[in-house]
Amino acid sequence: MESFRFSHTNNVAFALLFYPVNNPGKIKQRIIDAAKVEGTEGDHERDTVNFSFIEASLITSRLHLETAINQAIIADSQGSLRTKTAHSEILFALNPTNNITEAIRRYGVSDKSESLLVVQITDSSASVSDVEIKMKEVVDGTVVPFGELATITEWDRVKKYHKLDKEVRGKGEETRSFIDNIVISSVAMKSVIQ
Amino acid sequence: MALSLSQSLIRASLPISQGAEAKVYKAQLSETSLPILLKYRFQKHYRHPSLDNNLTRTRIAGEARALLKCLRSGVNVPGIRMVDAAEGVLGIEWIEGQSLRKLLGGTEEEGDDLDVEATDTELENPLKDYGVSVEELMKLVGIEIAKMHKIDVIHGDLTTSNMMLRRPKSVESTLAAELVLIDFGLSYQSTLTEDKAVDLYVLERAFSSTHPDSEPMFATVLVAYANVMDKDWPAIRNRLEDG
């Protein structure tokens, strides 16, 4: 389990990287259904999927994810979320435009997701093993070390979504860190884009 | 009242320097992350609160947008790491290195430097550490400014304090030294020859007031600048010469 502990908040974020994922369509359906169920049963179902399900192939580095989590936590603390929860705000922060539907379609779980980063923002009293059990209950897939992300990132899609096709050519390590820096910067300044 | 997240972050950070507009800190966002530089545009009590909030927000947004534009076009500037416009905080990548002002042995800035790392400036020839000569350094300055002007970003405050030389990752590093432009707090977008010429003029004044015998240095800057600007150069040169 990867954990993100910030120096300015008691919030902690936990993340698990799943690759491959066998039930992406089912997870997506479950999130949609959970929003519709009423009463205590609904609360329970919503709690079961109370994570951010992120298309891992669009994440370029640990810092990329950390920046999105941090900006979501800041927005939440100020009551300035643009989406309903801090978890959906992570997806919103990751997408370079202000279109929420597009953010969820691109960066959230889809029928075609092969890899997922499952993130929960919680407080420091949460038990890591509980969170891990809950994540594994929802996702049918193989947990791989966070470092595997480097082999999962689809740089061509990252470039396309960030409109970097023209600016950046080449595929080397240097090119990747150049793209990574731009992508991280876009996420960090999401709240002040035009 | 509980502190806001950004205020707690500032509380836990190391003050670096203070100006009239902002305070600068070295901070760490998370246990595992690299240090960042926080630029905190504190509240100005001499302004009406709502005007103050508005101005602060606009300036942070402006600075962040200029940085992103530069990053996307390959101009060497610090990456953005966090933005909290409501609290007036901009977090950028920490550049390990030294300002050109110090590297060139410029006269000290007045008083407001809180000087946490004053010791390593005592070296006989600080540039040696970075493996560049003064002439090469001036070329890098010219190239970087030209790259920025090519995309119509005007820095607005070009001085040797607002340029840093990034320390090479290792001594044997074959990577060329990297000149990084910083502090885009006064930057704006413009396609006008006039604005680009003024940007250069400001730098020329800065050179001559902080570094003795700077004319040949600035001339080298312009040669490298002209080279990159190519056909745009003659018009800018004319404006610059008109003074």
Automatic annotation (TrEMBL), chain A:
The record ties this protein, via SUPFAM superfamilies, to: PF0523-like (SSF143870)
Q: Does the keyword Hydrolase apply?
A: no
Q: Which GO terms describe its molecular function?
A: kinase activity
- Superkingdom of source: Eukaryota
Instruction: Name the major location.
Output: nucleus
**Could you say which protein family the record assigns here?**
Belongs to the CGI121/TPRKB family.
Subcellular localization(s) per the UniProt record: Nucleus
One of the record's GO cellular component terms: nucleus
Upper classification of the organism: Eukaryota, Fungi, Dikarya, Basidiomycota, Agaricomycotina
Q: What does this protein do?
A: Component of the EKC/KEOPS complex that is required for the formation of a threonylcarbamoyl group on adenosine at position 37 (t(6)A37) in tRNAs that read codons beginning with adenine. The complex is probably involved in the transfer of the threonylcarbamoyl moiety of threonylcarbamoyl-AMP (TC-AMP) to the N6 group of A37. CGI121 acts as an allosteric effector that regulates the t(6)A activity of the complex. The EKC/KEOPS complex also promotes both telomere uncapping and telomere elongation. The complex is required for efficient recruitment of transcriptional coactivators.
> Where would one find the signal peptide in this protein?
none
Which Pfam families does UniProt cross-reference here? Answer: CGI-121 (PF08617)
* One Gene Ontology term from the biological process aspect of the record: tRNA threonylcarbamoyladenosine modification
Asked whether the keyword Mitochondrion is assigned, the reply is: no
Instruction: Provide this UniProt record's keywords sorted from A to Z.
Output: Kinase, Nucleus, Transferase, tRNA processing
Protein name as catalogued: EKC/KEOPS complex subunit CGI121
TrEMBL record, chain B:
GO BP terms: tRNA processing; tRNA threonylcarbamoyladenosine metabolic process
- List GO terms (cellular component aspect): cytosol; EKC/KEOPS complex; nucleus
EC?
Answer: 2.7.11.1
By its UniProt entry, which Pfam families does this protein fall under?
Kdo
Q: Which InterPro entries match?
A: Bud32, Kinase-like_dom_sf, Prot_kinase_dom, Tyr_kinase_AS
Q: Name one GO molecular function term.
A: protein serine/threonine kinase activity
State what protein this is by name.
non-specific serine/threonine protein kinase
Annotated source species: Rhodocollybia butyracea
